[in-house]
Amino acid sequence: MNYRAMPSPKQKSNFVVFAALSLALAACDGAATAPPQDPPLAGADIGGPFELVDQHGKTVRWEDFAGKYRMVYFGFTYCPDICPTDVGRMVHGLGRLEKLEPEKAAKVVPIFISVDPERDTPAVVGEFAAAFSDKLIGLTGTPEQVKAAADAFRVYYSRGEDTPGGGYLVDHSAVVYLFGPQGEPLATLPVDKGADAVAAELAKWVS
To answer: What domain range includes position 65?
Structure first.
């Protein structure tokens, strides 16, 4: 199970995507507007150093992404519904932005971090990430490494009871964070509202 603020609405047309992005970047009279001075998560104690591994078993650290905007989602690959939906909208939102504002999209790195190190080996996480985009970075690690990362990002997770078939679910907070080039928290991305809303929010904060 996961936590969700509201049900996901249907995705809008590309025309609406363009309009949403335009509204985020321009005033009604066509004059350019700067993004709000203070992002919603400005000054929040979210994020920080971590040491995890990618699909090749290579060590990856938070500081490796310095200079890039970072979309970060914690989930697990065996999740039957919410995780693939959220990750899909996160990646598709970035794809929408890439079509309309490729220079901005090139500055963004999407990152998936597993909260199920028992099953999510580097290879499994790599396959999961590749199913969505070759740009999506999948990370996992030892239970200790995963816990340290989740604690730094204020992410809750808890292994559920075993099911009759031998599997289990993982309860976890479902939120996509957007961080700036210095690793500073900026905002949460509205994956519950669809990829178009994600694209518009990225356009607002990525400069």
So the answer is: 11-36+49-160+168-205
